């Protein structure tokens, strides 16, 4: 029999067993972990170890930066604002006389001149400003399962879609504020050949959305059933749309929820000023530049009102490099950081050298 | 049959038996001062109005919860904590109000925290249940109507007679599990109880349960059929406590008087008040700052939102209309919910997980103390003990160390050194060889000068042999079941002189409650007088002439610290009644004839300066009349139920007068191992060491010299009764004068002390040591006039703070606590540490910020009440300098890092509001918001806070000065906090705007496709996770494989998780926001380059700072090196037995 070990202590946090301890030898184990003697690497940042790093960073970053900067500079970009705020602007009339219900689309044509030929693929973007696609109420106003082709969600859109879930007691497909406000201007490019003819430039509608979005995340109800009209039976189009969802494109593979324009729009932008990929102008074979130097005109079917919130609409033509679109920021940042590192490396080296000398002297004098 | 019995309840032993009782508790529920117990539940016939008493059963319940109430009760307990409650509120807001993040984001971490805590508490409670059950189901034998019945312990009721006999009326117990005193204690049966258990009819009246282990007052009425009821007093010596263990006794019978939760043991296990560490206070302050930041952020956003919405077209553009409900909501209500939403959005700035991590760090970290093999003491086979893990870091912040002397600085291992009889000094020289000279005629006494008369000599030795409460440990053949021999810490008599003693003493050992007594009895034995033990109230001693003398022990006037003496009254065979008294000089001298005093005083003082503990021995003859008077007085006082102590004291004082002094003894108390080194290291670390002792000034002073607390160039400022009486004026005046004088000397004239300089190498400066005694201290603290009191107190404190060491002698336990409290509450509220080993140190251990108990010889009370317990004083050095330092650095870094990482986590989210129309759109996906603190960044910092050794332990131990670097909460002051906050802000700004400029053109892929808002958040988040983890990696100075594993593992996990999270269409999610966002991000070269750039740019200042610090470092390092290391000067100090202070001059 042993003395009672009434050991449970009422203590917040720690329980200790304190019997008449003499009986049990509780010699702590001599393991490296328990004795806090695990083998350890003890790096010390000294000028000696950091200096090479600084130089390496400097030497690495400056070329990268220069490369980025040059690349970015080589990207050709052309931007044109067609909002029509000024009275002089061709689209002024369209922007003034806007009505959702007008049956006749308003069109306007903006001429522009490309000073340089665009050699490679050209990407056509539309840009919107002061458009808060990242507003919380807006961002959540969608139903991803409906967009994925779920038949149940098609008929009973999520509550998040309010107030764009039902219209006249019919479910809206696609529901939600994002879908409802889909960009619906039509942009067409014409090349004004010096010989006077107006050549329409072929704009490619595919390849503008993320592959995974088009093939996995978005899907039409009824799977690959050819009859989209039947699949969307019982739903109604979003209030602001002019055509129902199953009528977005003649191409079956680009119609309904998997319409790429729609998918691109559904990826909400990060900032209130944004651009979205609209079309791609593929490079023609041979040495002919995709867009030769010369006069062009942009023909706009002006459907999208932005003046009520003081927005702006732009059309952007851009070539693309390995780093994406034109963005001088990265190049400049890399060059700056690289030079700063290099400069610091030099300063440190000097100080280190001086200090080292002083220390040596001090040691000797001691 | 085992001779060991454990008691599961407090009972009054009565080897023969007992009977019935009366209950005085009326019908009303009034609390009464005493309880009455019917022995054996046999209602006495003369009491008709018997109301069954209601006592609690013998079940011990130390557990908090049952299965049924665990959930509600635990949840309630947990949500009483402010932090948990805050997160609950946030969670509820998320559920009720339409908020940007789903309730899951804060609900999940909260559930995690609550679950982990609940599991921990549940496990602890399960352990308690197990311990309870072990106790409650223990089988016992109960005597019911003469039959022996086996019962479970929990079914014992008050009044039950339990069996557990020895012809003798005594039994021995040890109370090792109660207070750790493993020495055998003698308990007595109630005198004059009949031998027949059946016929006993008695009631016991005793006090209500109270926690004091050493106090018990009761009375037993024994009803005999033919006589008046006899009344017997019951004292603590009649009470066996629950938790004590019967030794050398086979069976006893007892009656249960306190059961279950009313036993003294249970009453003593009430939780201590929670101590809070300085770090926790800092955390709370920082928390407040962050709460302010949070509220102001939310307010700012709300205001800006409504300002912004006033612009035409912004509130509700055509593309983003409100729902009908939103339109109907009242504007002010909307504003309020918006404010709440912003609070919810930013609430991550106050990290839930920090509390969990801090708790885990403390809990797990404390294991390193228990695991440390350096703290293991082979003698007691125990290592360090951690009673609370809340104070680990406080060990690194100690500024004042209050130490007990006996048992802490000294070993409490007493050795009889010399004695002085009638003014002549007898020195015992060598225990081993001297025995040859042991012969009857000569005596073992090595005469230094002349010898005192033989008669005096023998009287003195008899006094030593009789005046004590020592028990002789029985030799094996007497008590058969002595398997417990190993367990006893009994001072066994060595091999010396055994052959010369009469037969039964082969294994003689003495058992006493104080080691002094054993030393004295053994000392007397060396001079030829051997105490043979008790034989029922008779003490036998073997004289030098090998005669056995018998003395009848009439009374023991127990020792207590107030009287500072004890006496016995014995009757010799010749019929003389004698009183022997031993005690401190101060308490004996006034009670003896003055002419005898002078001769002995000189010796006593000399012994005291040599660091010995001195006791004076006196005696007196009592004539029959005197004895009768004393006897009656003592008996009466012992029967008193109220104020028994006071009454006894009065009688004691009355009896112990007019004695004659025979001599004095000197006992040496050795210094603890490495006491001096430890003290020096502590002082080198910038701690002020105060010695608080109940001992006399001279002894304490010499100990201080031996411990190097005072050195040869230390100027001692004495403020004691002696110096006060020097001037011959009133004490008050003199006190005032001295205080002012010392103050001038030590405070005003002293050059301003520079923080970095310590006395070890500034010996040119004047060092002051301050000495004060208990009487003077109470004059300082309780001065007659109120204004003086606070002024004196101030002067006193200022003087003390400027002295390197302070010695407070003649302290009562409460005064020790008073001093600690005074320093604790003084300016700058320094962190105090008390270390002690005895019950008299408990009060100061409890009072100080950190209480350390030493597992010494004086029982376990100090250990039980301490926060940390160590086997030896020398362990204090490592505990503070290494463990404390590391714990502090670890937790300080942990706290700062946590605030930092959450600031730069939430700041981009805050900045994003300016770009999303103040719509509370979260920047990061909900999964990231939730997982950031739980998964991605929690483990590296936990590993860091457990394993980091920014300086390795050996270096910390060798350079005590390093401890000063973190003094005064150095890493958690506003400066460092500001730095970290700034760093967080810098990182936050960098992350957000870096990505913002990258998104100047969102076409970041080489196929011209664009990124959306979730890509934006994911890039920021990736930079964030990598930066904060790498920042920690930069700070880590001690990379074990665990660090590598968790740091790289966390990053890998983040990447893996992101792929996984974005790789599947999750059916339970309403929105597939992150679908392939991460993978797409990685397919963009620009995103890669931006991420690398931002991470590097964030860490660059940090690296620069480290390097620049290092560049200045070499000089500082050299300076340190030139200083003499504290180790060298202590070489000489290792002579631990140094008893004179001449040694310290040689340095």
UniProtKB/TrEMBL annotation, chain A:
Recorded topology in the membrane: Multi-pass membrane protein
InterPro entries xref list: CDC50/LEM3_fam
GO biological process, one term: phospholipid translocation
Keywords, ordered alphabetically: Cell membrane, Cytoplasmic vesicle, Disulfide bond, Glycoprotein, Golgi apparatus, Lipid transport, Membrane, Transmembrane, Transmembrane helix, Transport
Residues that span the membrane, as ranges: 44-70, 329-351
Region feature Disordered, mapped onto this chain: 1-26
Family, similarity comment: Belongs to the CDC50/LEM3 family.
The name this protein goes by in its record: Cell cycle control protein
UniProtKB/TrEMBL annotation, chain B:
Database matches in Gene3D superfamilies: Calcium-transporting ATPase, cytoplasmic domain N, Calcium-transporting ATPase, cytoplasmic transduction domain A, HAD superfamily/HAD-like
The keyword Translocase is annotated on this UniProt entry: yes
EC number: 7.6.2.1
Matching Pfam families: Cation_ATPase, PhoLip_ATPase_C, PhoLip_ATPase_N
Entry GO CC: endoplasmic reticulum; plasma membrane; recycling endosome
UniProt topology in membrane: Multi-pass membrane protein
Localization, UniProt: Membrane
Domain P-type ATPase C-terminal as annotated: residue spans: 863-1111
Co-factor(s): Mg(2+)
Family that this chain belongs to: Belongs to the cation transport ATPase (P-type) (TC 3.A.3) family. Type IV subfamily.
Protein name listed in UniProt: Phospholipid-transporting ATPase
Organism name: Pogonophryne albipinna
């Amino acid at each position: 029999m042993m003395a009672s070990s009434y050991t449970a202590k009422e203590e917040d946090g720690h329980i200790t067993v304190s019997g008449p301890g003499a009986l049990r030898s509780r010699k702590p184990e001599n393991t490296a972990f328990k004795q806090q003697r695990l083998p350890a690497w003890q790096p010390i940042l000294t000028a000696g170890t950091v200096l090479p790093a600084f130089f390496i960073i400097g030497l690495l970053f400056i070329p990268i930066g220069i490369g980025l900067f040059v690349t970015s500079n080589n990207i050709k970009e052309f931007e044109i604002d067609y909002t029509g705020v000024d009275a002089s602007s061709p689209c002024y009339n369209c922007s003034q006389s806007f009505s959702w219900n007008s049956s006749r689309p308003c069109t306007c044509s903006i001429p522009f001149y490309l000073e340089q030929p665009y050699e490679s693929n050209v990407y056509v973007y539309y840009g919107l400003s002061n458009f808060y696609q990242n507003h919380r109420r807006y961002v959540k106003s969608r139903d991803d399962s409906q967009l994925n082709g779920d038949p149940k969600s098609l008929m009973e859109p999520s509550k998040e879609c309010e107030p764009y879930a039902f219209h006249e007691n019919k479910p809206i497909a696609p529901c939600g504020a994002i879908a409802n406000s889909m960009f619906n201007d039509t942009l067409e490019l014409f090349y004004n050949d010096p010989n006077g003819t107006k050549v329409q430039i072929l704009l490619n509608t595919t390849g503008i959305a993320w592959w995974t979005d088009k093939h996995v995340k978005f899907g039409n109800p009824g799977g690959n059933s050819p009859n989209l009209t039947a699949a969307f039976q019982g739903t109604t189009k979003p209030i602001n749309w002019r055509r129902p969802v199953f009528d977005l494109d003649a191409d079956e593979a680009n119609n309904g929820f998997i319409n790429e324009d729609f998918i691109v729009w559904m990826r909400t932008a990060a900032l209130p000023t944004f651009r979205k990929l609209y079309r791609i102008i593929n490079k023609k074979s041979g040495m002919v530049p995709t867009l030769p130097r010369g006069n062009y005109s942009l023909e706009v079917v002006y459907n999208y009102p932005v003046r009520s919130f003081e927005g702006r609409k732009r059309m952007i033509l851009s070539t693309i490099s390995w780093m994406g679109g034109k963005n001088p920021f990265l190049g400049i940042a890399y060059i700056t950081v690289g030079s700063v590192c290099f400069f610091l490396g030099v300063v440190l080296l000097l100080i280190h050298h001086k200090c080292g000398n002083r220390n040596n002297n001090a040691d000797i004098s001691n | 049959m085992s001779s060991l019995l454990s008691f599961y309840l407090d009972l009054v032993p009565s080897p023969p038996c007992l009977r019935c009782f009366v209950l005085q508790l009326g019908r009303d529920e009034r609390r009464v001062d005493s309880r009455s117990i019917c022995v054996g539940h046999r209602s006495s016939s003369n009491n008709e109005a018997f109301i069954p008493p209601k006592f609690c059963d013998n079940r011990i319940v130390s557990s908090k919860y049952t299965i049924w109430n665990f959930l509600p009760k635990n949840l309630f307990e947990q949500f009483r904590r402010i932090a948990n409650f805050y997160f609950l509120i946030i969670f509820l807001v998320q559920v009720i109000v339409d908020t940007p993040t789903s309730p899951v984001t804060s609900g999940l971490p909260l559930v995690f925290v609550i679950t982990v805590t609940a599991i921990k508490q549940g496990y602890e409670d399960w352990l308690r249940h197990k311990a309870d059950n072990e106790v409650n189901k223990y089988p016992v034998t109960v005597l019911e109507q003469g039959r022996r019945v086996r019962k479970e312990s929990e079914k014992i009721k008050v009044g039950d007679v339990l069996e557990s006999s020895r012809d003798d009326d005594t039994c021995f117990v040890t109370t090792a599990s109660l207070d750790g005193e493993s020495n055998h204690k003698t308990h007595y049966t109630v005198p004059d109880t009949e031998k027949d258990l059946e016929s006993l009819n008695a009631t016991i009246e005793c006090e209500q349960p109270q926690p004091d282990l050493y106090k018990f007052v009761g009375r037993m009425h024994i009803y005999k059929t033919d006589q008046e009821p006899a009344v017997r007093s019951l004292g603590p010596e009649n009470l066996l406590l629950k938790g004590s263990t019967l030794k050398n006794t086979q069976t006893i019978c007892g009656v249960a008087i306190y059961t279950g939760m009313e036993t003294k043991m249970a009453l003593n296990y009430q939780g201590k008040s929670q101590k809070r560490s300085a770090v926790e206070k800092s955390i709370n302050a920082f928390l407040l700052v962050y709460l302010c930041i949070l509220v102001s952020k939310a307010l700012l956003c709300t205001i800006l939102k409504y300002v912004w919405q006033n612009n035409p077209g912004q509130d509700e553009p055509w593309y983003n209309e409100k729902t009908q409900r939103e339109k109907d909501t009242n504007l002010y209500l909307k504003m309020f919910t918006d404010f709440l939403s912003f609070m919810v959005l930013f609430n991550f700035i106050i990290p839930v997980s920090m509390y969990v991590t801090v708790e885990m760090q403390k809990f797990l970290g404390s294991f390193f103390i228990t695991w440390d093999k350096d703290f293991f003491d082979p003698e007691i086979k125990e290592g360090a003990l951690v009673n609370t893990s809340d104070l680990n870091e406080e060990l690194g912040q100690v500024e004042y160390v209050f130490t007990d002397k006996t048992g802490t600085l000294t070993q409490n291992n007493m050795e009889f050194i010399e004695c002085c009889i009638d003014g002549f000094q007898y020195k015992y020289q060598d225990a081993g060889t001297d025995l040859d000279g042991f012969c009857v005629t000569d005596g073992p006494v090595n005469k230094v000068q002349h010898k005192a008369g033989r008669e005096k000599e023998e009287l003195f030795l008899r006094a030593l042999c009789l005046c004590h409460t020592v028990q002789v440990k029985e030799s094996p053949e007497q008590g058969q079941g002595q398997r417990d021999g190993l367990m006893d810490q009994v001072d066994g008599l060595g091999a010396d002189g055994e052959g010369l003693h009469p037969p039964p003493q082969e294994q003689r050992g003495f058992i006493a409650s104080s080691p002094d007594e054993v030393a004295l009895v053994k000392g007397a034995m060396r001079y030829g007088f051997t105490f043979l033990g008790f034989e029922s109230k008779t003490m036998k001693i073997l004289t030098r002439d090998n005669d056995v003398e018998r003395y009848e022990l009439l009374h023991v006037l127990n020792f207590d610290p107030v009287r500072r003496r004890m006496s016995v009254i014995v009757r010799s065979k010749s019929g003389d009644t004698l009183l022997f008294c031993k005690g401190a000089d101060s308490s004996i001298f006034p009670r003896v004839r003055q002419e005898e005093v002078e001769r002995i005083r000189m010796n006593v003082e000399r012994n005291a300066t040599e660091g010995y503990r001195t006791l004076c021995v006196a005696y007196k003859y009592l004539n029959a009349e005197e004895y009768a008077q004393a006897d009656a007085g003592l008996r009466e006082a012992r029967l008193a139920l109220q104020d028994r102590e006071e009454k006894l004291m009065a009688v004691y004082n009355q009896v112990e007068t007019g004695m004659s002094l025979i001599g004095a003894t000197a006992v040496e108390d050795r210094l603890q191992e490495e006491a001096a080194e430890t003290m020096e290291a502590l002082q080198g670390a910038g701690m002020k060491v105060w010695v608080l002792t109940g001992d006399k000034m001279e002894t304490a002073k010499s100990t201080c010299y031996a411990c190097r607390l005072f050195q040869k160039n230390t100027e001692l400022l004495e403020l004691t009764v002696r110096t006060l009486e020097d001037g011959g004026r009133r004490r008050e005046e003199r006190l005032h004068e001295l205080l002012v004088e010392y103050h001038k000397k030590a405070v005003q004239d002293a050059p301003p002390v520079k923080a970095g300089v310590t006395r070890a190498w500034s010996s040119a400066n004047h060092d002051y040591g301050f000495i004060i005694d208990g009487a003077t201290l109470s004059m300082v603290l309780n001065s007659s006039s109120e204004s003086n009191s606070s002024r004196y107190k101030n002067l006193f404190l200022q003087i003390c703070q400027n002295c390197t060491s302070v010695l407070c002698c003649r302290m009562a336990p409460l005064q020790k606590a008073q001093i600690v409290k005074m320093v604790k509450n003084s300016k700058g509220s320094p962190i105090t540490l008390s270390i002690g080993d005895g019950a008299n140190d408990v009060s100061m251990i409890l009072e100080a910020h950190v209480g350390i108990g030493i597992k010494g010889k004086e029982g376990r009370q100090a250990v039980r009440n301490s926060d940390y317990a160590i086997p030896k004083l020398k362990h204090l050095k490592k505990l503070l300098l290494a463990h404390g330092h590391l714990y502090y650095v670890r937790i300080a870094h942990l706290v700062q890092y946590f605030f930092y990482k959450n600031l730069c986590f939430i700041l981009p989210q805050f900045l994003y509001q300016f770009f999303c129309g103040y719509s509370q759109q979260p920047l990061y996906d909900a999964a990231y918001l939730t997982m950031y603190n739980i998964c991605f960044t929690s483990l590296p910092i936990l590993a860091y806070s457990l394993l980091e050794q920014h300086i390795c332990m050996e270096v910390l131990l060798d350079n005590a000065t390093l401890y000063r670097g973190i003094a005064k909460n150095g890493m958690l002051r506003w400066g460092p906090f500001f730095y970290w906050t700034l760093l967080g802000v810098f990182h936050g700004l960098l992350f957000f705007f870096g990505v913002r400029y990258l998104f100047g053109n969102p076409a970041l892929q080489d196929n011209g496709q664009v990124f959306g808002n979730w890509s934006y958040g994911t890039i920021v988040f990736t930079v964030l996770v990598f930066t904060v983890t790498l920042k920690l990696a930069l700070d880590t100075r001690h990379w074990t494989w665990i660090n590598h594993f968790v740091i790289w593992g966390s990053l890998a996990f983040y990447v893996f998780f992101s792929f996984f999270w974005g790789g599947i269409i999750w059916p339970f999610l309403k929105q597939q926001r992150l679908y392939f966002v991460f993978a797409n991000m990685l397919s963009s070269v620009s995103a890669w380059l931006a991420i690398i750039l931002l991470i590097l740019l964030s860490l660059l200042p940090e690296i620069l700072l480290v390097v620049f610090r290092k560049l200045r470092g070499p000089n500082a390092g050299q300076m340190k090196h030139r200083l003499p290391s504290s180790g060298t000067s202590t070489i000489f100090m290792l002579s631990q037995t140094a008893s004179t202070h001449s040694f310290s001059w040689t340095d």
